[in-house]
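the three lines:
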Amino acid sequence: MVELARRLIGTTFLVDGVGGVVVETEAYRADEPASHSHRGPRPRNAAMFGPAGRLYVYRSYGLHWCVNIVGGDAPGSAVLLRALAPTTGCEAMAVRRGLADPRRLCSGPGKLAAALGITGERDGAPVDGEGVALIDREADPAVVAGPRIGITKAADLPWRFGLAGSRYLSRPFPRHDTGVPA
DNA sequence: CCGCTGATAATCT
DNA sequence: GATTATCAGCGGA
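prediction for all of em together
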């Protein structure tokens, strides 16, 4: 699953022609306690135990939608889409989000879902099905990794991935000191 | 640029 | 009854 999370960085994710480049993801697996799939199949997480390449959409904190892509390495694995660099349909995103600042449009899982108009209706939908598209990248981008955000269990696993140097992350990655002063 | 707080409901104990 | 894969708004530095 970790591999898919890495590989999704740099791909383009669109819903009804609106979206952008994936710049931040997190991997989740059934064998690890932070995952919704950890305690087995349930109504909410059914999509996580279904076919690979589908969406798992759930409601977070009772009010935000979050979007995952289901993996195929093992049952119950998925990659949370945490941030996009907006490229297409910025006007529609600005309207849905009620702001125009591209850096704040999709810089978080809930914001991303809101900007692309994703709700629970898309739960279980194929990533290349009706209105949804995932376009692979040309070359391998520089990817950075760090601990996942907003969880209390298994918080030490470095399964959050980001496009190096991107200005559209939900939060910066922990920086190693380069040792080279400016 | 922080850090804190309330909102809000499904899921879990 | 507690917890939660979050966010916007606010006040302070």
